[in-house]
Specification:
Blueprint (H helix, E strand, L loop, with lengths): L2 E3 L10 H4 L11 H6 L7 E4 L3 E5 L9 E5 L18
The protein binds zinc ion.
Length: about 90
C-alpha cells in the first residue's frame, strides 16, 4: 500500500496500487519493503514507526513523494484499525 503524494492532476498515470503484482503480496517481493530495509536506495523525507515518506524515483513534479506504511500491507483493508482514521 502506498499513498502517492502529487499535487498536480495526473489522471493519465496509473495508480501505484494498480501496478502491484500479485507476487508483491509477499513482503519478500515488495519494492517498498526493499526500500524500507535499505536493499534499495531512496531519499527519505520522514520515517517513524507507522509510516515513511521518500522521494519518487520518477517524479512527475518537484516534491513528488510516496508515503508508505512501515509494516507490509497489500491494501487499505489490511491497515490495523488503530492506524486508520476510520478506526
Ligand atoms: Zn512491502
Amino acid at each position: 500500500m502506498v499513498l502517492d503524494i502529487n499535487l498536480v492532476n495526473n489522471s493519465n498515470r496509473p495508480s501505484v496500487d494498480s501496478l502491484v503484482r500479485p507476487a508483491e503480496k509477499n513482503p519478500m517481493d515488495c519494492i517498498f519493503c526493499d526500500i524500507l530495509t535499505a536493499k534499495l536506495e531512496a531519499t527519505f523525507v520522514y520515517r517513524d514507526d507507522p509510516v515513511a515518506a521518500f522521494m519518487d524515483i520518477q517524479p512527475v513534479n518537484p516534491g513528488h513523494m510516496l508515503v508508505v506504511p512501515v509494516q507490509h500491507l497489500v491494501g487499505l483493508a489490511d491497515l490495523p484499525s488503530d492506524r486508520s482514521a476510520a478506526g
